[in-house]
Amino acid sequence: MKGKKVTKRGKIINRKVNKMTSQQKIKKLINMIGMTDPKVVDITTENLGTADSLTESRITCSFEQKDAYLYYILKRHPGRTIVFCNSIGSVKRLAQLLGLLKCVPLPLHASMPQRQRLKNLERFRDDPRGVLVATDVAARGLDIPDVDHVIHYQVPRTAENYVHRSGRTARACKEGLTILMMEPAEAYSYAKICRTLNKTSELATFPVSSHSLASIKELVNLAREMDGLMLKKRRATHAQGWRDRVAKEMDMIVDDDDVPSAHMDPAIDKALKVKKKRLDFMLSRPLFPKGFSFKYPTLNDPDALVMPEENALQVMKKSLETGELKRDKRKGKNDALLKLEKRFKKL
To answer: Among the entry's GO cellular component annotations, what is one (predicted)?
Structure first.
């Protein structure tokens, strides 16, 4: 017989087992324990895992554009900010780059000595505009008050990491903002996080001025070129040091002319000096100029030509309100068109 099992004594046993619903499982568990007058508390919410006072947003860009967008946010919307990366290598590279751009970043990762980690955390707490570049080692177990922004420089590997990272802000009933920077290769991980957290829609896009971003990109690209040259020089110096140690241990005499090395190449030092001079000049100018009146040049106030800094959370809230108004207007127009169509049909 299909779907049934016959024992040796001729008894028929149904092979199929009915799956129980969540309510049935809870009821069965209550009966097994022998609880009387039980109270069931449902702790699941619509925004699973994140605080209600947290405003979430995202920026979709290519991998090459992430540095420019990050620098834009840090300079246009300053505040106590934690930038999370997925690896120690990314933290080191980003800290080096932001250091060249005069952002004074504070790195934090597991390979650092405990004393240095505590020192960087203390400096970050004392600076209202501090920038902490960290791995997930800072995502839990640390109570850092008044963190304004959390930036996911790379999409977290799991939804749990996303929740813990985002939980560094919007603490103790205070408001906070998270910005998830996503490149096309990270779209699958992003979608997986949204599904796990039961998000019915995508994260809203954080508003960025394309005009201001253009000048930022030129600045960041110059800093990246400098970082590449400095890395090349460090590697060459390290390789030369290794060769010297080996030669000393083997009692060998090596002629410097026979061992070409990049750190002895004056072209690298010359290129670094030229690029540093240009970078310092660009950093001395306003990053976000408002404009210049050629009609009345004497009325131009140098301070008035610089766009004021803005609160990132307020900018995001304003963008969300504007988006809702536009949707309401479109909905109103569609409703009006439907009413007109109905009238014409009656005629």
So the answer is: cytosol
